[in-house]
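Project outcomes to date are best conveyed with an example. Our students and postdoctoral researchers have been running inverse folding experiments weekly, and each run begins with a structure described purely in tokens. The record below, which covers 316 residues, was selected by the lab manager from last quarter's runs and is presented without edits.
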């Protein structure tokens, strides 16, 4: 999805599930599960973008309702509408790729509408957190709307207020089992998208896949990791420093991360080795133990040197 970071994470997660399930799930069905999980990851990406739109709409509705009070205050009658007219949200709502995705979801046969509006309590609480934030106080301290400033505001709010919110995680987990582990990575894509709008880039909405190669990357890598597992394990065991690590006590997740990494190094000559290693070392830091990144880096570098010297790979 979007780029190959999330695909790699999903392959590692699926391989872990496959290896610990007693093989009750066939490899073919596992690949279908992977594709579904990636579809849900892209849905989450658009759902988080929609959250900014619908929070803005909710704020607008509340300001209008305040004017209809029996005894409205001066602030009710003359509210600060800077957030209502946020130019980033306006551009996002008008983006053809985003609109197309939202309209597709609106017309699909879903159990629940593709909207946050049904989560009334969460939306009210989240809007209150946004309006009480330092980011909002600084934002309304200046008059008028500036496109870059409006982008910076939502980037800061999404990064510092919305994404870290525990209730957001709870709401998403209740909606999809696929979303609990995706929020950190997909949230980073949302932040990048806001930056793309700020820089006036063409087509700022990230596509689910750039091309057919990206679409096939996940299922192919998963199958390669299964087929190469014994060979990868032998390489891992060869380069474990037994003075510091017991071969039999290496965490399964660490082994699977290294297995997928080695499989990618072997079977994807167009992907630079350093790119592959860096990605999986980061995955290890996030999904395994705090010390995993360091020793996985050492083992993978030794394995790559062996693959080069033995002629199994021929790339930098």
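After processing, the design step wrote out the following sequence:
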């Amino acid at each position: 999805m979007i780029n190959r970071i999330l695909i790699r994470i999903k392959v590692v997660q699926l391989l872990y599930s496959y290896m610990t399930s007693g093989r009750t799930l066939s490899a073919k069905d596992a690949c279908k599960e992977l594709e579904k999980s990636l579809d849900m990851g892209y849905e989450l990406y658009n759902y988080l973008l929609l959250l900014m739109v619908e929070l803005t709409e909710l704020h607008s509705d509340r300001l209008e309702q305040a004017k209809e009070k029996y005894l409205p205050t001066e602030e009710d009658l003359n509210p600060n509408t800077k957030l209502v007219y946020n130019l980033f949200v306006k551009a996002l709502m008008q983006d053809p790729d985003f609109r197309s995705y939202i309209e597709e979801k609106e017309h699909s046969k879903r159990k629940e509408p593709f909207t946050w509006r049904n989560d009334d309590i969460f939306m009210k609480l989240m809007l209150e957190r946004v309006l009480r934030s330092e980011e909002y106080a600084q934002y309304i301290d200046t008059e008028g709307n500036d496109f870059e400033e409006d982008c910076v505001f939502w980037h800061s709010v999404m990064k510092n207020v919305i994404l870290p919110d525990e209730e957001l995680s709870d709401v998403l987990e209740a909606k999809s089992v696929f979303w609990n582990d995706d929020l950190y990575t997909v949230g980073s894509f949302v932040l990048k998208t806001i930056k793309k709008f700020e820089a006036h880039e063409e087509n700022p909405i990230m596509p689910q896949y750039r091309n057919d190669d990206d679409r096939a990357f996940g299922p192919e890598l998963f199958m390669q990791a299964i087929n190469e597992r014994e060979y990868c394990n032998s390489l891992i065991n060869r380069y474990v420093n037994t003075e510091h690590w017991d071969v039999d006590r290496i965490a399964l997740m660490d082994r699977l991360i290294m297995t997928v990494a080695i499989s990618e190094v072997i079977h994807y000559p167009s992907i630079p080795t350093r790119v592959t290693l860096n990605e999986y070392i980061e995955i290890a830091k996030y999904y395994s133990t705090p010390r995993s990144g360091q020793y996985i880096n050492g083992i993978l570098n030794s394995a790559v040197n062996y693959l080069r010297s033995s002629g199994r790979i021929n790339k930098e």
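The mean pLDDT is 90. The chain has two domains: 25-198, 228-309. The training component of this project remains on track.
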